[in-house]
Amino acid sequence: MALNIEDYAIIGDCQTAALVGRDLSVDWLCWPRFDSPACFANLLGTTDNGRWSIAPADPGAKMTRAYRGHTLILETTIETAGGVAIVADFMPTKVQGSHLVRLMRGISGSVKLRTELIIRFGYGAVVPWVRRYDDGSLRAVAGPNRLVLRSPIGLRPRGRTHFAEFTVAAGETVDFTLSHGVSYEDVPHAIDPYQALEQTERSWGAWSQPFEGAGQWSEAVIRSLLTLRALIFQPSGGIIAAPTTSLPEQLGGSRNWDYRFCWLRDATFTLLALMNAGYSHEAMRWRAWLIRALGGEPARVQILYGLGGERYIPESTLPWLSGYAGSKPVRVGNAAAGQLQLDIYGEVLDALYQSRKRRLVTDAADWMLQIALLKHLETIWALPDEGIWEVRGPRRHFTYSKIMAWVAFDRAVKSIEEFGFVGPLDHWRRLRQHIHDDVCANGFDPEQGAFTQSYGGKDLDASLLMMALVGFLPPDDKRLAGTVDAIERRLMVDGFVRRYDTQVGEDGLPVGEGAFLACSFWLVDNLVLLGRLDDARALFERLLALRNDLGLLSEEYDSAGKRLVGNFPQAFSHIALINSAYNLARAAKPAEQRSGAKAPEPGEDRFGLF
User: Fold this and answer.
1) What is the CATH number of domain 234-595?
2) What is the CATH number of domain 5-185+197-207?
3) pLDDT in tens, 47-94
C-alpha cells in the first residue's frame, strides 16, 4: 500500500524522477524519461507492481529525513537501539546514463537492514527475466528495457522478488547502484557511486548559487526553485507539470490525470519565477522550447505537449493498476491535448512580451509567429471552449478564456508601442477594446457584484483572480474587489481556494476535489494588489504550512482529510509559491510586472475599507 502523498520525496537527474517514501521505499520511477512507462509502480497499485525498499530490521526504529543543503540528495537517518545509520538516495547528474544510487553509512554502533527489489516494467505489468552475472551484477531484462544492479551485497531470489539482509557498522558504507539501459545495446557502464555523490552535490550547489534571496521566505523559495529545476527535462528545456500520473484530486475518485507533460498555460508565471530568481538561462531554454513546440500552424496549437514538443499524446487507462487509494481509472496520456482552450493564446503572447520586456531576447525573430497566432485568434476568440480547467462537459463561453484573448491583443499592441514592431495597431486596439467590452457586458453579474465563470452564469471561478494579475482591470476597480470578495466567501474551504464548486458546475465529471493551491496563491497576489498585506501574509504562511517536511507541494489540499492530494510535486503550485513570495518580499513584484499595476504601500488600502 502506498503512503500518504506528503510522505514522499522527489529525487531526479533532470530527465526522470523517483518518489522515495518516508519508509525508504522507491514506489515510483519512470525510466528513461519522465513520461516513460514506470518500472516501480507501487504508488498506483501494490508492491507486486514494483518497488525497491530498504528498511531497518528493528520495527521500532526512528527515521527522519532531509535534503542535503540546497540539493536533491535525500538523507534519511535511521536510529535503532543498536546504532545509527544514514541512507543517501540520489540520481547522479552529469554522468553517462541514468542511475539511482543508494548509500548506507554507519554513524554509530551497527544497524541491521533489509532490502527488497521488485522490478516490473510497463507500469507494473511486465515481469522481467532476472539473472546474476559473474561480475556480481543483477540484470533484469524485458523487451527494450534493462536494469542493472551493482552492489557488494548479493540479493537472492524470493518468489518474483530479490531480497537481502545486511548490517552497516560505524565507519562503514554499503552502496547500491541501479542503472537503466536499452536491452539490445551495451550494458550500462558502472559508475563510482561516491564520486557521483560528490559531483551531484557540487552540481546542485552550483545551480543554487545565483539565487538572490526572497527575504524571510528565502528557504521556501529556493526549495521550490530546486523542485522546479528537477521537473525541467534537460535535453529540451521543457518543464513538466508533475512527475506522476493519476494521483487523485479526490481520494477514491476518478479525477485522475497524467501530468508528465508541458502545459502552455504555465508559460508566463514560469518565465517570471525563473527570471526574478536569477535563472535567465532556464527561462531562455523554456522560451525556446515554447517557440519550437508552437510550430508554424496556429490552427494546430495545443494546450499541452510532450517533453520535446511532441503533439500526439493519446489517453488510455491501465486496468491492472488498482489506483492510488483505490482511485480509478489510472490514466496515461492526456486527451486534453485535443481541447480548445482560448486562454493559451494570451499566455503565449504574454510570455513572449515579458521575455522581451526583460531583455531575455532583443531580436524580432518570433514576431511573425505572434502575428500568425493573433490572426487565428481573431477568428476563434468568440467561440465557446473547454476553458483553463479542461472540463469534459459541454463547451461554454468561459470568462477567463475571453480575458486571456484580451491579453493576447493587449500584449500585441504593447509590443508595437514599446518595441517598434510593425502590425495593424489601430485594428488590434479596437479589437482589444471590443473583447474588453464583451467580457464586462457578459461576464459580470450585477446582482452578485462579481464576474462569473461563464457568460450568463452565476457560478464563480478562481481563475478570475487572474483579472488583476494580467492587467485586465486595475486593482482599484470595484468590480474586481467584488469578485475577490465573492471568491473569498463562496469558494474558500477552511481558508483555501477551490477552483470552482463541482457540486453546481457542469464539468462532465463526478463531484468533489480539494482546494487548488495555485489559486490560493493567486488570492495572496490579489490581496497584495488590494493593499491587504496582513491578510496576504497570513494566507501565504498558511499555505507554506501545507508543505511536507521537505518543502514539497502537490496540486491540491484535502481540508477534510488534512492531507495533500493530486499529482506530486506540482510545478504550478511551486511556481505560484515563488511568485507570491516575491510579491510580498521584493520591490520587483511579478503581479506588478505582469499587470502594470502598482501595489499600495504598507498601510495603504485601495478602498479605505481595512
Assistant:
1) 1.50.10.10
2) 2.70.98.10
3) 999 999 999 999 999 999 999 999 999 999 999 999 999 999 999 997
